[in-house]
## 1
Amino acid sequence: MAQSKNRQEARLQDLIVRAKAMNVQVRKEKLLREAGYRVHSGRCRVNGQDVILIDRDVPIGDQIEFLAGELAERRDPPAAASDEMTQSLSGEQA
């Protein structure tokens, strides 16, 4: 079990290093909860810097899944308009 946890921790650290390479800061923090208010890990921008906040109290497997998903979404953003469509909208001719 300890070996599995070490592998998971290594995987999480690898994802954090990858995020840094993408100029994204990852912070593991205790996200405070209030009565009637549920917090979630998430991303935001602080002074122009992309930041991903991970709730350190959730299981490490969930932290890995969340961070991997956020990085994949950032790496492969939703399909942008094709060049042809962009040219059409800007009034250019191919």
## 2
Amino acid sequence: MAMAPPPTEENCMPKIHPHSEASYRVLPLNDGSFGVEVTIPDSYPTTVTKFDSHEAAEAWISAHRDRVQDQTGSGGLFRRSWQRRR
């Protein structure tokens, strides 16, 4: 089993959540529902669909931004393998 490299200043730098720089846009869909287009730099946009209202789509955007910020601030999913939670 390969061992992880020892911690150094370079590999201890916090990783940035891939959605931290995302932009969001609410789109009306043909069936009367709404979608949220999520665009991440250097990636193709994707659309999250089937919100009943514009307000529901905006609420999802707000909740998603909060989750991203929480995960980025806590280290959440973005710890290196040698960093164990206690």
